[in-house]
Design goal:
The chain is mainly β and 156 residues long. The chain has helices spanning 32-36, 136-142; strands at residues 50-60, 63-65, 68-81, 90-91, 106-110, 115-120, 128-134, 144-146. Strands 1, 2, 3, 4, 5, 6, 7 and 8 form an 8-stranded mixed sheet that branches. The longest helix is centred in the last third of the chain and has 7 residues, at 136-142. It starts with 31 loop residues before the first helix and ends in a 10-residue tail after the last strand.
């Protein structure tokens, strides 16, 4: 018996006419992530931070604005509730708590000791803020005393 096979296979590959480039000869690949990267921010060195003796913050669009302020010991922070949803201003260590505030309400607290005080809204815990309290002598060195802080926002 004799069998003939036709069309069952692939033709033999012909050797390349030129040698394939080596890894060193290939152009650098542009990754998708590097093409879409945004510039990175420089770390905060603390220079140029405005130190306040009174800071007025707003509560609007489910955020504390500004999110971070620096005040001197004895300085007062006032939060004005401008959002239609109810909110609280509650320190993580329960040193201060506004209770539930409706739109149009406000709350103030005077900081008598230096330190970092973090706070949040008990109703919306993703809303957070930071109050940095520094000694007046420390503020006079690298900082400028001003009426209002910068803008560092948080939003859901």
């Amino acid at each position: 018996m004799l069998f003939a096979l036709a069309g069952c296979g692939t033709p033999a590959a012909e050797p390349p006419s030129e040698a394939a480039p080596t890894v060193d000869e290939l152009p650098p690949a542009e990754s998708e992530s590097s093409a879409a990267e945004e510039p990175t921010e420089e770390p905060d060195t603390g220079e140029g931070v405005e130190v306040l003796d009174r800071a007025e913050l707003s509560i609007a669009d489910f955020s504390f604005r500004p999110r971070t302020v620096t005040i001197v010991v004895g300085g007062t922070v006032v939060w004005s509730q401008e959002d239609s949803a109810p909110h609280t201003v509650t320190s993580d260590d329960f040193i201060f708590d506004s209770g539930t505030m409706a739109e149009g309400g406000d709350f103030q607290f005077t900081f008598d000791t230096p330190g970092t005080f973090t706070y949040y809204c008990e109703i919306h815990p993703r809303m957070t803020g930071v109050i940095e309290v520094v000694e007046a002598a420390e503020a006079a060195g690298d900082f400028t005393i001003a009426a209002l802080g910068g803008e560092d926002y948080y939003s859901d």
